[in-house]
Amino acid sequence: MMHVEERNTTPLSLGEEKNMVIQLLLINITVFALLFFTEVIYRMEGNPLARYHDDVLSHLMLRASFTTLLHNPWTLVTAMFVHDSFWMIVSNMIWLACFGTMLQNHAGRQRVLPLYLLSGIVGAVFYLLGMQFIPSFRELQPFASTTGASAAIMGLAIGATVVAPRYRLLPDLPIPFWIITLVFLFVNFGTHVVNGHDLTMVPSLIGGGLTGFLYMQQWKKGNDLGAGFNKTLHRITHLFHPKTHLHIVK
Hints:
mainly alpha, Rhomboid-like fold, two-stranded antiparallel ribbon, globular
């Protein structure tokens, strides 16, 4: 039995405090801006670009080695919020807005953040496994790394499609939502494989998409895999909030 709660049918709005998609967009854009200005400062001080990578990016991006991961375990999460090019973050944020809003409107905002994070982490694990066990990737392992929200957004895309595959974004446009997801798949894989000549990201995208599929399939059956995460996050964010009491005036 599928349960629906806190469904949000409002469009994207910076004033909507319960809009998890907007919050994710702001986090990603803020991180990009901070890293961009940090790089500018490094260059203004006459430092080579390699030093910026060693001092800053190397501690945020996900390296292709499990050994490096043991020293920087937080990169499983930080890497999905780091974008190293303008066009990369623009395209990812457009897709995040599209699929995140779709998922939020049809399944509630509490599904967005857990699925985003879980898809990104599983995508990172698939990337690491691919670099270890796919023969053609092993020789790239010493200097390979990954950044970006592609796997996390792939999870949102597949998850939203599982929930409402035949939904139409525009009533007058006879295109079901699964067609848009198909276009996204071709664009995403094409960007990494054809333009970037980088097959190493394919396992990551598969991991993220598989997570989105399984997560939302379970949600449709009544099993909210992110319930524990949401409860913990709520306790943390409301730790210092004063408790309100209801006063009844007779």
